[in-house]
Amino acid sequence: MSTVKTDAGPAAEAADKGQRIEHDGILDVRDLKTYFKLRDGDVKAVDGVSFMVGQGKSLGLAGESGCGKTTAALAILKLLPENGRIVSGEILFDGKNLAKRTEYGMSKVRWKDISIIFQGAMNALNPVQPVGKQIAEPIVIHEGISENKAMVRARELFDLVGINPKRVTEFPHEMSGGMRQRAMIAMALACNPKLIIGDEPTTALDVMVQAQILELIERLRHELNLSFILISHDLSVMAETCDTGVIMYAGKVVEAGTTTNIFNNAQHPYTRQLIRAFPNIHETREMVSSIAGDPPNLLNPPPGCRFYPRCSEGDPSCIEHDQDMVEVESGHFVRCQKVA
Amino acid sequence: MIPPRLRTWIFVWTPIAWLVVTLITYPKNRPLRTGFVHLLGGFFVTPSVGNYAAWVPLFLAIALGAYGIVKLIRQAQPSPFPWVLIAAAAESALWFVAASGLFRGHFDLSGKNTSLAWLFQTVLIVLIGAAVYTWGAANPERAELTVWNARQTWQLYRSNWQGMAGLYIMLFFAAMALLAPFLADHAFLDPTAQIGAPFAPPTLAYYHWFGTTEQGMSVLAEFIWSARISLVVGLFATVISTILGASIGIMAGYYHGWFSEVLMRLTDAFLVIPWLPLAMVLVAAWGQNYGILVLIIGITSWPGTARVVRADALRVRELQFIERGRAIGSSNWHIMQKHILPNVFPLVFANTILVVAIAILAETTLSFLGLGDPLNFSWGTMLHNAWDSGAAGLPAWWYLLPPGIAIVFVVLAFTFMGTAFDEVLDPKLRKREQSGGRPDEGPDRLLPLGGGVGGSEGLAEVPGGGIWAGPADDWDPHNDTGGRA
Question: N or C: which end of chain B has fewer CB within 10 A?
Answer without folding.
Answer: C
